[in-house]
Write a structure and sequence with these properties.
binds NADP nicotinamide-adenine-dinucleotide phosphate; about 25% helix; Rossmann fold; alpha/beta; 15 strands; about 300 residues; 6-stranded parallel beta sheet; Quinone Oxidoreductase, Chain A, domain 1; 2 domains
Length: about 300
């Protein structure tokens, strides 16, 4: 089968498309024929070797974590799924990924794919949808009526976070540049602050929860924490918050976890029309090295799905 691999850590040019052996389904695994795999910023960090200490890989490695596809083969001991089922998953880090025609996945990571969107598009849901959900509700404890600031709402995690927070009855303030404003408003943000015109540090109102999705400096993070009411919560997927902010403010750092039950719930929200999956571009899998290069130049227009 065709797969993208890297044989050493490095720049986007270490990614090569090659002919490799098709995986077989081991005990508790399924083999999925990949319809789509989406690019996430962490894929570039893994390829560059920035995560080699916490996450040592066996090289060569097939990258990517997000997949949507159709079950082709069931391994011994797999129950609840059948050949031909359309599924999505966030793969555990470290195993050969879905930047390939086929991928072997632990069955416990699978969720039924949403039925109302093209299967390849559904590959844009797992990592970013789970991150948004875990950040808001698992770490942030968000409830109806609370005021939440989502900093970085124009991105993929932010888009899901705005929709989930608004659907939960929160009052959502979002930062987004003009290119994302209309979409973020449509997703239910009550107020959109253009971060290219007004720095988030200039805000004066107070929030119960601040969700930070931007790779900002500690000074900006400290200012974001000041915007939180006593007893509120700061949650970040990027720059960590201060250890002891005082005033009863809680600080949490997100490390997204694969959770099939939670992912099934998100797919159901897609089918219910509550959660929209935004994909900026769909490209052939062979474009993955170019996608990494464009990401590093800051040129990706949004979520990118690669199709074998
Ligand atoms: N810890 C974890 O488990 C975890 C999991 C997932 C993601 N992450 C991290 O979370 C971050 C967001 O992920 P993502 O997938 O949503 O990334 P993304 O889709 O690349 O989103 C980036 C967006 O942030 C917005 N932005 C850039 N600079 C900004 C600023 N100064 N203020 C406000 N918004 C700004 C831009 O949108 P506009 O120009 O449209 O405003 C940009 O499109 C990434 O750094 C990613 O690595 C961490």
């Amino acid at each position: 089968m065709k797969a993208v691999r890297f044989h050493e850590y490095g720049g986007s040019d270490v990614l090569v498309i090659e002919e490799v052996e098709r995986p077989a389904a081991g005990p508790g695994q399924v083999v999925v024929r990949v319809a789509g795999t989406s690019f996430n910023p962490v894929d570039a960090a893994i390829r560059a070797g920035f995560m080699r200490d916490p996450l040592p890989l066996t090289l060569p490695h097939i990258p990517n974590l997000d997949v949507a596809g159709v079950i082709e083969e069931l391994g011994p001991g797999v129950a609840g799924y059948a050949v031909g089922d359309a599924v999505i998953a966030l793969l555990p880090m470290g195993i050969p990924g879905p930047a390939a025609e086929y991928v072997a996945i632990p069955a416990e990571a699978l969720a039924p794919a949403p039925r109302t969107v093209d299967l390849a598009v559904a590959a844009a849901l797992p990592a970013t949808g789970l991150t948004a959900h875990q950040a808001l509700f698992g770490h942030g404890g968000l409830t109806a009526g609370q005021r939440v600031l989502i900093n970085g709402a124009g991105g993929s995690v932010g888009g899901f976070a705005v929709q989930l927070a608004a659907a939960a009855g929160a009052e959502v303030t979002a930062t987004a540049s003009p290119r994302s404003r209309e979409r973020v408003e449509r997703y239910g943000a009550h107020r959109v602050v253009d971060h290219t015109a007004t720095p988030v540090t200039a805000l004066t109102e107070r929030f119960d929860l601040v969700l930070n999705l931007v790779r900002n400096d500690p000074a900006e993070v400290a200012r974001l924490v000041e915007l939180i009411d006593d007893g509120g919560t700061f949650v970040s997927t990027t720059t960590p918050g201060p250890e002891n902010p005082g005033r009863g403010v809680r600080v949490a750092q997100v490390y997204v976890l694969g959770d099939a039950t939670e992912l099934t719930g998100l797919a159901e929200l897609v089918d219910a029309g509550t959660l929209h999956i935004e994909v900026a571009e769909r490209l052939p899998l062979a474009e993955l090295p170019a996608v990494h290069a464009r990401f590093e130049r800051g040129e990706l227009p949004g979520k990118t799905v690669l199709e074998p």
